[in-house]
Design brief:
Length: about 400
Protein backbone atom coordinates (compact mmCIF):
# COMPACT_ATOMS: atom_id res chain seq x y z
CA UNK A 1 0.00 0.00 0.00
CA UNK A 2 1.38 3.41 -0.93
CA UNK A 3 2.08 6.00 1.77
CA UNK A 4 -0.68 8.55 2.38
CA UNK A 5 -0.08 11.92 0.68
CA UNK A 6 1.51 14.55 2.92
CA UNK A 7 -0.95 17.42 3.53
CA UNK A 8 -0.03 21.09 3.69
CA UNK A 9 -1.13 23.48 6.44
CA UNK A 10 -4.14 25.54 5.33
CA UNK A 11 -2.49 28.64 6.84
CA UNK A 12 1.28 28.46 6.25
CA UNK A 13 1.64 25.55 3.77
CA UNK A 14 4.07 23.63 5.99
CA UNK A 15 3.63 19.86 6.26
CA UNK A 16 0.58 19.18 8.42
CA UNK A 17 -0.81 16.22 10.32
CA UNK A 18 -3.51 17.90 12.45
CA UNK A 19 -7.15 17.99 11.29
CA UNK A 20 -9.92 20.48 12.19
CA UNK A 21 -12.37 18.33 14.23
CA UNK A 22 -15.42 20.20 12.89
CA UNK A 23 -14.33 19.57 9.32
CA UNK A 24 -13.97 15.87 10.14
CA UNK A 25 -17.47 15.86 11.64
CA UNK A 26 -18.88 17.55 8.53
CA UNK A 27 -16.89 15.19 6.27
CA UNK A 28 -15.21 18.05 4.44
CA UNK A 29 -12.11 17.55 2.22
CA UNK A 30 -8.99 16.93 4.31
CA UNK A 31 -6.87 19.31 2.23
CA UNK A 32 -8.64 22.44 3.55
CA UNK A 33 -8.83 21.12 7.10
CA UNK A 34 -5.13 20.38 7.76
CA UNK A 35 -2.92 22.43 10.10
CA UNK A 36 0.71 22.03 11.20
CA UNK A 37 0.27 23.22 14.80
CA UNK A 38 -2.44 24.28 17.25
CA UNK A 39 -1.16 27.88 16.93
CA UNK A 40 -1.79 27.90 13.19
CA UNK A 41 -5.24 26.43 13.75
CA UNK A 42 -6.10 29.14 16.31
CA UNK A 43 -4.79 31.94 14.10
CA UNK A 44 -6.91 30.68 11.18
CA UNK A 45 -10.12 30.08 13.13
CA UNK A 46 -11.83 33.42 12.44
CA UNK A 47 -11.66 32.83 8.68
CA UNK A 48 -11.68 29.03 8.64
CA UNK A 49 -14.99 28.67 10.48
CA UNK A 50 -16.82 30.18 7.50
CA UNK A 51 -16.14 26.86 5.73
CA UNK A 52 -18.37 25.15 8.30
CA UNK A 53 -21.20 27.67 7.80
CA UNK A 54 -21.14 27.24 4.02
CA UNK A 55 -21.08 23.46 4.41
CA UNK A 56 -24.13 23.54 6.68
CA UNK A 57 -26.03 25.81 4.29
CA UNK A 58 -25.18 23.54 1.37
CA UNK A 59 -26.21 20.49 3.36
CA UNK A 60 -29.47 22.18 4.29
CA UNK A 61 -30.23 22.89 0.66
CA UNK A 62 -29.49 19.27 -0.26
CA UNK A 63 -31.72 18.04 2.56
CA UNK A 64 -34.49 20.36 1.45
CA UNK A 65 -34.27 19.05 -2.10
CA UNK A 66 -34.29 15.46 -0.88
CA UNK A 67 -37.41 16.08 1.17
CA UNK A 68 -39.27 18.01 -1.55
CA UNK A 69 -38.67 21.44 0.02
CA UNK A 70 -38.15 23.96 -2.79
CA UNK A 71 -38.56 27.70 -3.41
CA UNK A 72 -41.91 28.79 -4.83
CA UNK A 73 -41.77 30.60 -8.20
CA UNK A 74 -44.08 32.04 -10.87
CA UNK A 75 -47.29 32.46 -8.85
CA UNK A 76 -46.94 28.95 -7.46
CA UNK A 77 -46.68 27.27 -10.86
CA UNK A 78 -43.06 26.19 -10.49
CA UNK A 79 -40.39 25.39 -7.89
CA UNK A 80 -36.63 25.98 -7.72
CA UNK A 81 -33.87 24.54 -5.52
CA UNK A 82 -32.13 27.94 -5.46
CA UNK A 83 -33.01 31.21 -3.75
CA UNK A 84 -34.05 33.56 -6.59
CA UNK A 85 -32.21 36.84 -7.21
CA UNK A 86 -34.16 39.88 -6.04
CA UNK A 87 -33.42 43.33 -4.65
CA UNK A 88 -34.93 42.53 -1.26
CA UNK A 89 -36.44 45.55 0.47
CA UNK A 90 -35.94 44.32 4.05
CA UNK A 91 -34.16 41.63 6.02
CA UNK A 92 -36.69 38.85 5.38
CA UNK A 93 -36.01 36.19 2.76
CA UNK A 94 -38.15 33.37 1.37
CA UNK A 95 -37.35 29.84 2.52
CA UNK A 96 -38.16 26.55 0.77
CA UNK A 97 -41.75 25.33 1.02
CA UNK A 98 -43.06 21.82 1.60
CA UNK A 99 -45.14 19.84 -0.85
CA UNK A 100 -48.89 20.40 -1.25
CA UNK A 101 -51.00 19.08 1.63
CA UNK A 102 -53.54 16.34 1.03
CA UNK A 103 -57.30 16.92 1.21
CA UNK A 104 -59.47 13.85 1.93
CA UNK A 105 -61.91 12.83 -0.79
CA UNK A 106 -64.94 13.34 1.45
CA UNK A 107 -64.35 17.12 1.62
CA UNK A 108 -66.46 19.34 -0.65
CA UNK A 109 -64.07 21.10 -3.04
CA UNK A 110 -64.15 24.52 -4.72
CA UNK A 111 -63.74 24.42 -8.48
CA UNK A 112 -60.02 25.35 -8.42
CA UNK A 113 -58.92 22.59 -6.05
CA UNK A 114 -57.78 20.17 -8.74
CA UNK A 115 -56.11 22.38 -11.37
CA UNK A 116 -55.61 25.77 -9.69
CA UNK A 117 -58.00 27.63 -12.00
CA UNK A 118 -61.27 29.16 -10.69
CA UNK A 119 -64.02 28.50 -13.24
CA UNK A 120 -67.15 30.28 -12.01
CA UNK A 121 -65.63 33.29 -10.26
CA UNK A 122 -63.98 35.31 -13.11
CA UNK A 123 -67.01 35.40 -15.40
CA UNK A 124 -69.72 35.69 -12.75
CA UNK A 125 -72.18 38.59 -12.84
CA UNK A 126 -71.33 39.03 -9.16
CA UNK A 127 -68.05 40.65 -10.21
CA UNK A 128 -70.09 43.76 -11.04
CA UNK A 129 -73.33 43.27 -9.08
CA UNK A 130 -73.28 43.25 -5.27
CA UNK A 131 -75.31 40.22 -4.22
CA UNK A 132 -78.01 40.41 -1.54
CA UNK A 133 -77.71 37.12 0.31
CA UNK A 134 -80.71 34.89 0.98
CA UNK A 135 -81.50 33.78 4.56
CA UNK A 136 -80.10 30.33 3.68
CA UNK A 137 -76.84 31.81 2.37
CA UNK A 138 -76.52 34.00 5.46
CA UNK A 139 -76.98 31.06 7.79
CA UNK A 140 -74.38 29.02 5.92
CA UNK A 141 -71.98 31.96 6.04
CA UNK A 142 -72.48 32.32 9.80
CA UNK A 143 -71.54 28.69 10.24
CA UNK A 144 -68.55 28.86 7.90
CA UNK A 145 -67.23 32.08 9.43
CA UNK A 146 -67.41 30.62 12.91
CA UNK A 147 -65.34 27.65 11.73
CA UNK A 148 -62.85 30.06 10.14
CA UNK A 149 -62.54 31.91 13.44
CA UNK A 150 -61.93 28.66 15.32
CA UNK A 151 -59.27 27.67 12.78
CA UNK A 152 -57.48 31.02 13.11
CA UNK A 153 -57.63 30.70 16.90
CA UNK A 154 -55.99 27.28 16.63
CA UNK A 155 -53.16 28.87 14.65
CA UNK A 156 -52.81 31.68 17.19
CA UNK A 157 -52.27 29.19 20.01
CA UNK A 158 -49.11 27.74 18.42
CA UNK A 159 -47.40 31.02 17.50
CA UNK A 160 -44.11 31.38 19.36
CA UNK A 161 -40.42 31.88 18.60
CA UNK A 162 -38.98 28.79 16.90
CA UNK A 163 -42.10 27.55 15.09
CA UNK A 164 -42.03 27.66 11.29
CA UNK A 165 -44.80 29.25 9.27
CA UNK A 166 -45.11 25.87 7.52
CA UNK A 167 -46.07 24.37 10.88
CA UNK A 168 -48.70 27.10 11.30
CA UNK A 169 -50.03 26.18 7.87
CA UNK A 170 -50.24 22.54 8.94
CA UNK A 171 -52.32 23.53 11.98
CA UNK A 172 -54.65 25.59 9.77
CA UNK A 173 -54.97 22.81 7.22
CA UNK A 174 -55.64 20.08 9.77
CA UNK A 175 -58.15 22.17 11.77
CA UNK A 176 -60.04 23.10 8.59
CA UNK A 177 -60.25 19.50 7.41
CA UNK A 178 -61.28 18.33 10.90
CA UNK A 179 -64.22 20.76 10.74
CA UNK A 180 -65.27 19.35 7.36
CA UNK A 181 -64.08 22.38 5.40
CA UNK A 182 -61.61 23.11 2.62
CA UNK A 183 -58.85 25.74 3.07
CA UNK A 184 -59.88 28.16 0.32
CA UNK A 185 -56.39 29.51 -0.52
CA UNK A 186 -55.04 26.04 -1.33
CA UNK A 187 -54.35 25.96 -5.09
CA UNK A 188 -56.41 29.14 -5.66
CA UNK A 189 -54.68 30.53 -8.77
CA UNK A 190 -51.94 28.01 -7.83
CA UNK A 191 -51.31 29.41 -4.33
CA UNK A 192 -49.39 26.50 -2.77
CA UNK A 193 -50.56 26.59 0.87
CA UNK A 194 -53.67 26.48 3.05
CA UNK A 195 -53.27 29.94 4.59
CA UNK A 196 -51.15 33.08 4.20
CA UNK A 197 -48.48 33.95 6.77
CA UNK A 198 -47.08 37.46 6.40
CA UNK A 199 -44.04 38.26 8.56
CA UNK A 200 -42.65 41.73 9.37
CA UNK A 201 -42.34 43.67 6.07
CA UNK A 202 -44.70 41.32 4.21
CA UNK A 203 -47.96 43.17 3.59
CA UNK A 204 -50.05 40.16 2.61
CA UNK A 205 -50.13 36.79 0.82
CA UNK A 206 -46.93 35.51 2.39
CA UNK A 207 -46.37 31.81 1.66
CA UNK A 208 -45.80 29.53 4.68
CA UNK A 209 -42.29 28.11 4.50
CA UNK A 210 -39.39 26.64 6.49
CA UNK A 211 -38.37 29.89 8.21
CA UNK A 212 -38.66 29.79 12.00
CA UNK A 213 -40.37 32.74 13.64
CA UNK A 214 -37.96 34.80 15.72
CA UNK A 215 -38.41 36.68 18.96
CA UNK A 216 -39.57 40.19 18.04
CA UNK A 217 -41.32 39.26 14.77
CA UNK A 218 -44.89 40.13 13.95
CA UNK A 219 -46.85 37.67 11.82
CA UNK A 220 -50.25 37.92 10.15
CA UNK A 221 -52.17 34.70 9.59
CA UNK A 222 -54.93 34.91 6.95
CA UNK A 223 -57.47 32.07 6.97
CA UNK A 224 -60.35 31.37 4.60
CA UNK A 225 -62.59 28.32 4.93
CA UNK A 226 -64.90 26.86 2.28
CA UNK A 227 -67.80 24.98 3.88
CA UNK A 228 -71.34 24.20 2.73
CA UNK A 229 -70.70 26.06 -0.51
CA UNK A 230 -69.61 29.42 0.98
CA UNK A 231 -66.39 31.08 2.15
CA UNK A 232 -65.49 32.78 5.44
CA UNK A 233 -62.39 35.01 5.47
CA UNK A 234 -60.47 36.69 8.32
CA UNK A 235 -56.98 37.50 9.53
CA UNK A 236 -55.14 38.76 12.61
CA UNK A 237 -51.59 40.01 13.22
CA UNK A 238 -49.77 38.47 16.19
CA UNK A 239 -46.76 39.29 18.32
CA UNK A 240 -43.94 36.73 18.45
CA UNK A 241 -42.25 36.92 21.84
CA UNK A 242 -40.99 40.34 22.88
CA UNK A 243 -41.90 42.88 20.21
CA UNK A 244 -40.60 46.48 20.06
CA UNK A 245 -42.90 49.34 20.99
CA UNK A 246 -43.17 50.77 17.46
CA UNK A 247 -44.38 47.42 16.10
CA UNK A 248 -46.88 47.15 18.94
CA UNK A 249 -48.17 50.61 18.12
CA UNK A 250 -48.48 49.68 14.42
CA UNK A 251 -50.46 46.51 15.18
CA UNK A 252 -52.79 48.28 17.61
CA UNK A 253 -53.41 51.12 15.17
CA UNK A 254 -54.26 48.62 12.42
CA UNK A 255 -56.70 46.84 14.74
CA UNK A 256 -58.32 50.18 15.56
CA UNK A 257 -58.56 51.08 11.85
CA UNK A 258 -60.64 47.97 11.24
CA UNK A 259 -62.83 48.58 14.31
CA UNK A 260 -63.52 52.18 13.30
CA UNK A 261 -64.39 51.09 9.76
CA UNK A 262 -66.77 48.40 11.00
CA UNK A 263 -68.48 50.98 13.23
CA UNK A 264 -69.79 52.94 10.21
CA UNK A 265 -71.17 49.90 8.34
CA UNK A 266 -74.95 50.11 7.87
CA UNK A 267 -77.45 50.47 5.03
CA UNK A 268 -77.00 53.67 3.02
CA UNK A 269 -73.29 54.20 3.74
CA UNK A 270 -71.12 54.57 0.63
CA UNK A 271 -68.39 51.95 0.22
CA UNK A 272 -65.85 54.72 -0.35
CA UNK A 273 -66.39 56.00 3.22
CA UNK A 274 -64.57 52.96 4.62
CA UNK A 275 -61.29 54.23 3.20
CA UNK A 276 -61.81 57.72 4.59
CA UNK A 277 -62.22 56.40 8.14
CA UNK A 278 -59.22 54.06 7.93
CA UNK A 279 -56.93 56.62 6.28
CA UNK A 280 -57.75 59.30 8.86
CA UNK A 281 -56.87 57.09 11.82
CA UNK A 282 -53.72 55.62 10.26
CA UNK A 283 -52.25 58.94 9.11
CA UNK A 284 -52.93 60.60 12.47
CA UNK A 285 -50.75 57.88 14.02
CA UNK A 286 -47.98 58.50 11.48
CA UNK A 287 -48.60 55.40 9.38
CA UNK A 288 -49.62 54.84 5.74
CA UNK A 289 -52.37 52.81 4.06
CA UNK A 290 -51.70 50.27 1.30
CA UNK A 291 -53.57 51.27 -1.87
CA UNK A 292 -53.09 48.27 -4.15
CA UNK A 293 -55.06 45.59 -2.27
CA UNK A 294 -58.74 45.86 -1.30
CA UNK A 295 -61.44 44.25 0.77
CA UNK A 296 -63.95 42.32 -1.31
CA UNK A 297 -67.35 40.75 -1.56
CA UNK A 298 -67.57 37.14 -0.43
CA UNK A 299 -70.07 34.30 -0.30
CA UNK A 300 -70.38 31.40 -2.71
CA UNK A 301 -67.52 33.14 -4.52
CA UNK A 302 -64.19 33.73 -2.76
CA UNK A 303 -63.78 37.22 -4.30
CA UNK A 304 -66.51 39.30 -5.94
CA UNK A 305 -68.13 42.75 -5.82
CA UNK A 306 -67.90 45.10 -4.04
CA UNK A 307 -64.29 46.26 -3.93
CA UNK A 308 -63.52 48.00 -0.63
CA UNK A 309 -60.49 50.32 -0.88
CA UNK A 310 -58.92 51.24 2.47
CA UNK A 311 -57.42 54.61 1.48
CA UNK A 312 -58.90 58.12 1.27
CA UNK A 313 -60.34 59.74 -1.85
CA UNK A 314 -60.94 56.39 -3.51
CA UNK A 315 -63.44 55.91 -6.29
CA UNK A 316 -65.41 52.91 -5.00
CA UNK A 317 -69.00 52.98 -6.27
CA UNK A 318 -72.18 51.92 -4.56
CA UNK A 319 -73.82 51.97 -1.15
CA UNK A 320 -74.27 49.34 1.52
CA UNK A 321 -77.54 47.40 1.67
CA UNK A 322 -78.91 44.86 4.11
CA UNK A 323 -77.94 41.34 3.10
CA UNK A 324 -74.57 42.20 1.57
CA UNK A 325 -71.47 40.39 2.80
CA UNK A 326 -67.92 41.64 2.30
CA UNK A 327 -64.54 41.91 3.98
CA UNK A 328 -62.74 44.94 5.33
CA UNK A 329 -59.02 44.22 5.72
CA UNK A 330 -56.81 47.31 6.11
CA UNK A 331 -53.07 46.90 5.55
CA UNK A 332 -51.15 49.61 7.41
CA UNK A 333 -47.43 50.30 6.90
CA UNK A 334 -44.91 51.82 9.26
CA UNK A 335 -43.24 53.58 6.31
CA UNK A 336 -44.38 54.28 2.75
CA UNK A 337 -47.59 52.77 1.39
CA UNK A 338 -46.05 51.39 -1.79
CA UNK A 339 -45.44 47.67 -2.23
CA UNK A 340 -43.25 45.33 -4.27
CA UNK A 341 -43.81 41.73 -5.31
CA UNK A 342 -41.40 38.91 -4.53
CA UNK A 343 -40.36 36.49 -7.32
CA UNK A 344 -42.92 33.93 -6.06
CA UNK A 345 -45.64 36.14 -7.56
CA UNK A 346 -47.67 36.24 -4.33
CA UNK A 347 -45.72 37.85 -1.50
CA UNK A 348 -46.32 41.63 -1.38
CA UNK A 349 -43.76 43.50 0.73
CA UNK A 350 -43.28 47.12 1.72
CA UNK A 351 -41.16 49.08 -0.74
CA UNK A 352 -38.93 50.44 2.04
CA UNK A 353 -38.61 47.21 4.04
CA UNK A 354 -40.47 48.60 7.06
CA UNK A 355 -43.12 46.58 8.85
CA UNK A 356 -46.78 46.15 7.91
CA UNK A 357 -49.80 44.89 9.83
CA UNK A 358 -53.30 43.77 8.84
CA UNK A 359 -56.62 42.70 10.36
CA UNK A 360 -59.70 41.39 8.55
CA UNK A 361 -63.31 40.43 9.24
CA UNK A 362 -66.14 39.12 7.08
CA UNK A 363 -69.18 41.34 7.66
CA UNK A 364 -72.93 41.14 7.06
CA UNK A 365 -74.88 44.36 6.59
CA UNK A 366 -78.09 44.10 8.63
CA UNK A 367 -81.24 46.26 8.60
CA UNK A 368 -79.90 48.31 11.51
CA UNK A 369 -76.12 48.05 11.18
CA UNK A 370 -73.59 45.24 10.91
CA UNK A 371 -72.93 41.69 12.11
CA UNK A 372 -69.28 40.63 12.35
CA UNK A 373 -69.51 37.05 11.10
CA UNK A 374 -65.90 36.25 12.03
CA UNK A 375 -66.04 37.90 15.47
CA UNK A 376 -63.85 36.68 18.32
CA UNK A 377 -65.32 33.98 20.53
CA UNK A 378 -65.21 33.74 24.32
CA UNK A 379 -62.70 30.91 23.77
CA UNK A 380 -60.44 32.98 21.47
CA UNK A 381 -56.86 33.45 22.75
CA UNK A 382 -56.32 36.66 24.71
CA UNK A 383 -53.33 38.08 22.82
CA UNK A 384 -53.97 41.82 22.57
CA UNK A 385 -53.14 43.88 25.68
CA UNK A 386 -55.37 46.79 24.68
CA UNK A 387 -58.41 44.49 24.54
CA UNK A 388 -57.66 43.12 28.00
CA UNK A 389 -57.25 46.66 29.31
CA UNK A 390 -60.54 47.68 27.71
CA UNK A 391 -62.36 44.71 29.26
CA UNK A 392 -60.91 45.49 32.69
CA UNK A 393 -61.93 49.14 32.47
CA UNK A 394 -65.42 48.13 31.36
CA UNK A 395 -65.71 45.71 34.29
CA UNK A 396 -64.55 48.41 36.69
CA UNK A 397 -67.09 50.89 35.33
CA UNK A 398 -69.83 48.27 35.69
CA UNK A 399 -68.80 47.64 39.32
CA UNK A 400 -68.87 51.37 40.10
CA UNK A 401 -72.32 51.71 38.54
CA UNK A 402 -73.62 48.77 40.58
CA UNK A 403 -72.24 50.28 43.81
CA UNK A 404 -73.91 53.60 43.02
CA UNK A 405 -77.22 51.83 42.32
CA UNK A 406 -77.03 50.02 45.66
CA UNK A 407 -76.24 53.26 47.52
CA UNK A 408 -79.11 55.05 45.77
CA UNK A 409 -81.49 52.29 46.78
CA UNK A 410 -80.31 52.49 50.41
CA UNK A 411 -81.02 56.21 50.44
Amino acid sequence: MADAAILSCARCSKPANLQCPKCVELKLPREAAAFCTQDCFKESWSSHKSVHVKAKQSDGTRSAENEGWLYCMKNGKSRSPKLPYFEWTGTLRPYPISSKRVVPSLIDLPDWAADGIPKEEPSSDLQRIVEIKTPDQIERMRETCRIAREVLDAAARVIRPGITTDEIDRVVHDATIAAGGYPSPLNYHFFPKSCCTSVNEVICHGIPDARKLEDGDIVNVDVTVYYKGVHGDLNDTYFVGNVDEESRRLVQCTYECLEKAIAIVKPGVRFREVGEVINRHATMAGFSVVKSIYGHGIGELFHCAPNIPHYARNKAVGVMKAGQTFTIEPMINAGVWRDRMWPDGWTAVTADGKRSAQFEHTLLVTETGVEVLTARLPSSPKVYPWLEKSMTEMANRTTVCLVHDVLDQQH
